[in-house]
TrEMBL record, chains A, B:
It is found in: Cell membrane. The chain crosses the membrane at residues 12-32, 44-63, 75-99, 129-150, 195-217, 229-248, 351-370, 403-428. GO terms for molecular function: potassium:chloride symporter activity. This is Trk system potassium uptake protein TrkH. The keyword Glycosyltransferase does not apply. It is a multi-pass membrane protein. Pfam families: TrkH (PF02386).
Length: 448, 448
């Protein structure tokens, strides 16, 4: 008789099954009549959709979170977001450690035991460290947000709003309880909400290890290659997004055209940050110019940084592809970034993640044009990219999707959240022992 | 005083300037009042558009070729197509020889002098060989097509139609003189037209060296790696296209839904072949399902094979990317195709061409949404991909584009035709002398 202890799961299987289990529990809870304000069950497919969207920190919704769910329902969603966002970030960071990525200084001190001894106590302490850091950041975020929400909505509702949106922002979840499907549009020119949400989104989407390194080292030159690429690509994408949205939307009266100069700057900044897979919006996404929509699709595909709460193929993956192109144009054989050479493994892995991500968006877009033929092409293309990147922005079709279309989106959110990491991990593990010729100093980075 | 002989041009500069000169001469000729049936000049922008489309063998048209142009105008267009298609194929094949690609057997015998001695006479003889081969194939094509066109249209018109469409098909130009913008739709179930045009498109788009090799060797195993990849990828793309179009359009009454079973098979085959950048169509492209349109965009982006009359990033470029992904998933460090290892150079070069091509389609799509905001997104997306791939298929917006939109498309066609080859050549030249570690047998191939 086979002992159950003999069934060994590798870490990626644990991750996938663990997330599936949390999603299922969430769906069962949200399916309860007490979760809905009208006292009737929402039905399993919609409960599953909402639970998947929350655990995968996507933010696509088939019902308006603020007005449809009871306090119980909203609490379940908030817990699912926190478990999903935090759990994924922790697991991804642990994976990076397992893979032996170079970890530096303070980070190294904290997790040395986990690294060297692979002991349970070390891993537990490391996880505690991430947990505490997350709660501190989310707590500060909620505190600052309360300066806007409490005067406007009173103590109890104001505090609830502050906590919900702080967690949702840091976890890059994009769920809001403002009501009416307007996301953060009422606060398009509110500096408190803007600056706080920007900071939370960027911190959540940049990865735990980068935050620790930057907090301890402060100098760009001393950072690990991984952190350098993350910071460079994040700044590059934010810069391109900001300038492009400002120019493309300048005269659009349905988005930023009627705002003051400062309002235009603020709204364009928000718009450039949110495709780093946050999913909040302060202008009506469906009213963007077509060029802005296309740009948003590209930015959503790229997404945030590895081992963070963000989705997409990841900034580092795109950075490796970008630098390979630049190095190739310069006529060098090896991909070179910031004075370091990347192994062929990393380049091929990045290419693989990029190609699979793009193929999946194309195929799911085609499926959606068949299951939901009534929508415009860009609407389903945008929705498919948003789901795979776990972004949560939408041109407004989510609640009108057919049952089959919802199932496609559920799969996309799940694969979009777990796919790049598990692919990268599986590829990294099997490549781990292959030896390359030693030429210039090499440095490992996380992609996907 | 500087001697004019001292100004040295590298081969890519000769190619780019040569094509620009031919386009300009063509535009001046088509701008003449005697080129237009109404006796008035078409205007320089439209003449330039038509000349660029012909020389770059694209097939996008702002006026209906069959009804707008006089016999003089049509003759000019046909000459531009022949010069463009043949000139490019010859130049690209010569480039491949200059780069020292492994050439085999008969091919080697023919061009040995050009290869080893780099003598003018060798190159001239080689060029003659391509010229003769082209005229034989086009002549046979015209002869077979005349069995349909002569009975239908009488001797003089029938022969003119046969020659024009044979050349247009072999050069993957996509221009037709059927009239009324219907392309080959009247012949959707005509076996003579179908089989002949299929053969001409595939032969033109597969590359001269592959034709020579296959004709001489006949056995797949003995072919060069380049030919193996070309044949494999061509079959793969044709297979995917055929099955997908058949399924996606089966019930579409506006395309193949009302055809007999045989007609459905024939139309789906044609539809799968034409994005190999031919640009003819036997069903109304604008009536395809959205999923089929998306698939066509992907196939147009990939395009035909290197050193042929076809456009796109090329089958070999896509093949290298595809096999790198497969090899990476299998856990091998080197990209392996058909028992051969590819150098990192080739992989990086393919990645570079793929990324630049995609970036260009995205940027030109965004520009077109600004210059021509009245169209649907998929219409301009499709047009941008068609122009860059020099395909010539359109959802019907070409003649309605604004002046700025036409300029965008003119640039796209020019870059789409010369870009991948010149990029690949420039990259290949500078990488040529870099040494890689010798591990498994390597074999060079042409990408772009
Ligand atoms: K999100
Ligand atoms: K064409």
């Amino acid at each position: 008789m086979k002992n159950i202890d003999n069934i060994k799961l590798d870490p990626t299987q644990v991750l996938v099954l663990g997330f599936a289990a949390v999603i299922l529990v969430g769906a069962l809870l949200l399916n309860l009549p007490i979760a809905s304000i009208d006292g009737k069950s929402i039905g399993f497919l919609n409960a599953l959709f909402t639970s998947t969207s929350a655990v995968c920190v996507t933010g696509l919704v088939v019902v308006d979170t603020g007005t449809y769910w009871t306090a119980f329902g909203k609490t379940v969603i908030l817990i699912l977001i926190q478990v999903g966002g935090l759990g994924f970030m922790t697991m991804a960071t642990l994976f990076a450690i397992i893979l032996g990525r170079k970890i530096s200084l303070k980070e190294r001190l904290v997790i040395q035991q986990a690294l060297n001894q692979n002991s349970l106590s070390g891993l537990v302490r490391f996880t505690q460290y991430i947990l505490i850091g997350t709660f501190i950041i989310e707590g500060i975020g909620a505190l600052i947000l309360s300066f806007t929400f409490v005067p406007e909505l009173g103590w109890s509702k104001g505090i609830a709003y502050s906590i919900f949106h702080s967690i949702s922002a840091f976890c890059n979840a994009g769920f809001d309880i403002i009501g009416g499907g307007v996301s953060l549009m009422p606060y398009v020119t509110d500096p408190v909400v803007n600056f706080t949400v920007w900071a939370l989104i960027i911190l959540g989407g940049i990865g735990f290890s980068v935050i620790v390194e930057v907090a301890n080292l402060r100098k760009f030159k001393k950072l690990s290659l991984h952190s350098k690429i993350v910071i460079f690509m994040t700044c590059l994408l934010l810069g391109i997004g900001f300038v492009s949205y400002l120019l493309l939307e300048w005269n659009n009266p349905n988005t930023i055209g009627d705002l003051s100069f400062g309002g235009k700057l603020m709204a364009s900044t928000f718009q450039s940050i949110t495709p780093r897979t946050a999913g909040f919006n302060t202008v009506d996404t469906s009213q963007l110019t077509t060029a802005s929509k296309m740009l948003t699709i590209v930015l959503m595909y790229i997404g945030g940084s590895p081992a963070s709460t963000a989705g997409g193929i990841k900034t580092v993956t795109m950075g490796v592809i970008l630098f390979t192109v630049i190095t190739e144009i310069k006529g060098r054989e090896d991909t070179e970034i910031f004075g370091r050479r990347l192994t062929r493994n990393i380049v091929n892995r990045s290419l693989t993640i990029g190609v699979i991500g793009m193929a999946y968006i194309i195929i799911s877009t085609m499926l959606l044009t068949i299951t939901d033929s009534g929508f415009e092409f860009i609407e389903v293309f945008f929705e498919a990219a948003s789901a795979l990147g776990t972004v949560g922005l939408s041109l407004g079709i989510t609640s009108e999707l057919s049952a089959l279309g919802r199932i496609v989106i559920i799969f996309s959110m799940f694969l979009g959240r777990l796919g790049p990491l598990t692919i990268a991990f599986a590829l990294a593990r099997q490549n781990r022992n292959s030896k390359g010729a030693i030429r210039y100093p090499e440095e490992k980075i996380i992609v996907g």
